[in-house]
Records
---
Amino acid sequence: MKSLSQLLSPLMVEEIIGSDDKIITDVVSDSRKVTTGSLFVAVRGTTVDGHSFIPLLQYSGVAAIVCEEFPEFIESSITYIKVSDSAVALGYLASEWWDNPSRKLNLVGVTGTNGKTTTATLIYEMARLMGYKAGLLSTVCNYVEDEAIPTNQTTPDPLTINALLHRMVEAGCDYASMEVSSHAAHQHRIAGLHFAGGVFSNLTRDHLDYHKTVEAYLAAKKSFFDGLPSTAFALTNIDDKVGEVIVQNTKARKYTYSLRSRADFTGRIIESRLDGTTMSFNGRDVEVLFTGKFNAYNLTAVYGVSILLGWPLEEVLVGMSRLVPVAGRFQAFHSPKGYTAIVDYAHTPDAVVNVLQAIREVIGNRGSIITVVGAGGNRDKGKRPIMAREAALRSDRLILTSDNPRFEEPGDILRDMEEGLDIEGRKKSLSIVDRREAIRAAAAFAQPGDVILIAGKGHEDYQEIKGVKHHFDDREVVKEVFACES
């Protein structure tokens, strides 16, 4: 429990009706969770406005309500606090409620279209390899040291974020890393957090169903760096066309990383294989267990963060060689028949291109590439034909299939993807709605030396159809197919 006056101390309060001399039992933004003594924050969401629930809370026992506009009826037992932006206020209230845990950790945020999960996870892994206790907030899973905590969002709500960071502090963690999605930045879910550093990976087309324009998408990403304090570092990929723009207004100390230009932290690919790569970091050679240029960028970012956090160079280089790939990110499985299946989360045109280029760089003309890919329903439709076109250009055979159709008809999604195929693309492709059957078909086509790319779902163990999540795991299906081949 905390006093209301203490909780309100970091806020820019515009007006208050009632007393701030109250004890608050919890902070909530979901009206269904209100209990006696609660502080309710009315946030304007994308589908629901929390202000609409204020009249229903008059006799709920709620102690105080934070809002952007006062209700018509004022209940004398409730304190009403007016702020300019409830979403921002929620972030600061959540931090204050949980004793500002981000200020007790070295918290590093990672943003960008592709590479967030891998980079954030590897920073967490590297911290642990350095002998520190660490935590992670990511798309795949949240971790407090060894304890895995399931997640269903790239960046959770502020109350969940701070509760998890508090658990990390209680567990003795020194470091934490987290993915910062564009949605989270735009919706102020990271408001009130204190970051030791931020990383920008890249910017390509994604989430335009939400942001509408690439410019708005960029602005959301940039806002994360605009909010970093002068004590933090901002590490950006200058090989990306907006790499310098994204940090131009930050107060943080600016650093760069690159695979092809002069930068503070440079990575170079010396030799690539399906099971790893020989790389150099600022001129020092290291064998890493990752493949592809996109992973080389991720690793160079991790190297840069490690040095900026003050970890010893020689130990960092050893740590780089010990890092292992994230589940569902270029995860390779070798068939008894002599071909390789790679499961990857690539679900944007750029990500698909990166993975396919990585595979071609390794196998050259010694084998064929068979790609199985779909596109999510109720999301940016504009990227569907682009994904199909880019996949067809870089594959010897293409199978279009379901991803997470959500509330759309899978056949309609596939027809949207087919629109991106030219005559040559159509000749080498077929559409199979059932994802399991699509993977089996790819395996039937594969010959020794070939590579099957199964893209789009990666670590996910479900398919979302008509609002229901059905168990489905690409990796399990691959293993089932291999078992039949043995």
---
Amino acid sequence: MKATLLAKENGDAKFTIEFTAEEFEAARVKAYQENKNQFTIDGFRKGKAPRSIIEKRYGDVFAEDAINDMLADGYPNALDELDIEVIDQPRMEFGKIEKDAPFTVTVTVAVYPEVEVKDYKGIELEKVDAEVTDEDVNTEIENLRKRNARMVTVDREVKDGDHIILDYKGFVGDEQFEGGTAEGYPLVIGSGSFIPGFEDQLIGAKKDEEVEVKVTFPEEYHAEELAGKEAVFKCVVHEVKEEELPELDDEFAKDVSEYDTLEELKKETKEDLTKRKSAWAENQMKDKAVEIVCENNDIEIPAVMIDDEISQMIRELDMQLSQQGLSFQQYLQFLGKDMMAFREEVKDDAERRVKMRMVIRAIVDAEAIVATEEEIEKELELLGIQYGLETDKVKEMVGEKNLEYIGQDVKMKKAVDFIYENAKVK
């Protein structure tokens, strides 16, 4: 096989792939072996007719499969050989098929655009405050207390923040509606789990006494038969529990940490918060730096790249929804949108994502940023930690070919660091 570049202009690459007569013949033989059982010829058992007999009756019937088989490897190999990165499906023109002669395919395909990026050094950034206050530390300690609280059953009326066990029956008029009934339902008052106003009306309820809760379903409620309607829920609270927080003392510090005193716990908490907040602030400034560089550069983005990004966003959302037991189609129904409307809605965000990657990648090229073996190894280690796997196992799963993508991610991160390190932080 030989690949020859003819032209590269107007966002397209045009090249030829020439297969030798010997390669074409070998592909025909392979196609014959794989498909001969489909032909029935008088005088021969099924699958036993010679290729010459089949072709004499039906013509060069194995040529199409042979061409597809040659292109399965030949097309990607040609892209590698000519160093062409495509962004769309190719358009192919097939040459004349002749006996004992080479076969040529002429390919035209949209390629990744060349991008010249400017004004990415010396941009001005506002410093993001990363100071940790005593209030921040106290809030973190209070959250730690809540995580270590125990639930205690109390004999009193319901208050905000209580955990209750509830029975309820929902009615619209005199009709009890489907899906509006539950027994032994656990509910945290103030969690916002139910329709607005529902939980507030349970405050003050007494154990085992019926309480009527009157609500109006939102106009955009997912169950259309209930949307905008007034309803009454007959509720009975069977159990009330409240959080009992541990005392804030040295014993608490010993129970929840490796420290002997509350002061030591607070000191370590402040140091940990400082590291986290500093990292958060730096990431905020890096995001802003990339945003500014994108604003500094006008780039013509091929429509196909935006369409592909939208499709990728939909796949990502579909995976997230599936983890919650929902399908993407159900999600669209809940929003009251069709696929076309959704794609149009996320188009601007997709365009921003594509532009950001194009700009960062252009900086990778402009600054000749590389990914070292050590950096790629570190990235694989982080993936291993994320998925609970040994680095060698991650490397095996990723595969040699996909290591290139890992390296590209490393280079992109280094390019973002380069923008930030060369910025003027005020």
---
Amino acid sequence: MTIRVLIADDQAVVRAGFRTILDAEPDFAITGEAADGAEAVRLARRDRPDLVLMDVRMPVLDGIAATERLAGPAVDDPIPVLIVTTFDLDEYVFDALRGGACGFLLKDIEPDDLVQAVRVVVSGQGLLAPAVTRRLIAEYARASRAARPGPRPIPDLTARERDMLLLIARGLSNAEIAGTLFLSISTIKTHVARLLAKIDCRDRVQAVIYAYEHGLITPGDPP
């Protein structure tokens, strides 16, 4: 299967670097490059890539708004979006994740890690670099806590489902959860799929945000 990727970044040197790395893989194909969010939305809707690598700060339309138009809750047929961020400078990545992004990459990612990240997200796993993900979401959850309402009602979760959600929110992979709960990875995958359906979350990224927003875990909680 060919993995088709659209690269969206306002810096030509970044686009060229990502293209060089991904083009070296025999099963990757670059569908196009976009220098702003509006162009990214247009090209993604036209070509339907398997994944969009989306910068945050771009002219015309920023990456957050573009992500919501491609993968937001109101989109019937979403296109997976992977945010590319400098992390320390981008203040709105949490909003992008809430808007439907599958996860995020740091711009200084190693070439092999970029390739692996794309493969992981295209395979349907949304949460990348668990330790960094926890840090990112914790920072933005803390920053915006005062502006958000209190914990919302949650559906009835079994003790096992609650444990599963907490482990996902702390950034554990399926293999790590399996080791913690002494279950097989295939069983964990089944439990995770059922949990996501029950809490109406599209992927693990949304499950992490769900846990924060419903007060199941708060910034600073131990991993």
---
Amino acid sequence: MDLPSLWFWIVGFLFLGYFVLDGFDFGVGMSLPFLGRDETSRRQIINTIGPVWDLNETWVIVAGACLFAAFPEWYATLFSGFYLPLLLILLALILRGVSFEYRHQRDDLRWKRHFDLMIVVGSAVPAFLWGVAVANIVRGVPIDQDFEFTGTLLDLLNPYALLGGATTLLLFFTHGVTFVALKTDGPVHAGARRLAVRAGVLTLGVAGVFLAWTLADAWTGGAPAFPAALIAAAAAAVCVLGGIIANARDREGRAFAFGVGAVAGAVGTLWFSLFPNVMPSATDPAFTLTIQNASSTDYTLTIMSWAALIFLPLVLAYQGWTYWVFRTRVTRRHIETAGAAAAH
């Protein structure tokens, strides 16, 4: 495997890590209107991701930095053509982060409800728009001979991309609700488990149509990694179904593992379908950005490879250690005790 191909898969792994980790963050945020029946339950839900949400978001920074360094042409075309959706994602992430920090600064119900709404919006918008963006990357967008995006916002809001957005929205929602069930007790736990079953059924239908559409395009387009894309799509479907069954049987640990597998399978389907391109041109196939014509020099990629070999295991170890430290459930009794102590 040459260095540009290696870095195509490394960038894919980094985005996969981001979608798995920040994906359940988005799902937790979107679950507030469904599971947050009172202030205690809302605090219980938010506290499940309190120690880790900002760490999860760093994956997209690393993925974007590696994309810029390894594939500058891809980065330039992507960020210029997708400027508005990516700006909306950034603003939503800022909105969500501010809300996490400020909602508890005043003991006023209206104050907290406003920030809760911002958490929901700041979670749902990125969950949807990331799917729209990645679906457009796989499908192809108008690109000219200078590798510049020549389309409009309406070109990005095509049926395939909108279905991709609905797929990531539902995948992340189900993934997040399962995480809430894993990390809580009492009424929140019971409600999350039931909601995960219902959301999982809807996700299976929507994601199934989207992945089937993706595979059909990959087959007709002669994607060289089509067999791997087919296996990844099948694995995603099996994992969504497994998550539904596990949640119904109150096996939230297994259900969360299935959720990780479902997101990984969906991202893998898209990445295998894209290979060896990085951004197909809908204008003329000759203008397509590929792994080879969009990559940096071998010298740059060699330095990046050594850096990744040294630092990526350290990042993974630190991430694993963080989740181990905060592995216990967020109980309703703990929230009530903390609230009583604060009141005194």
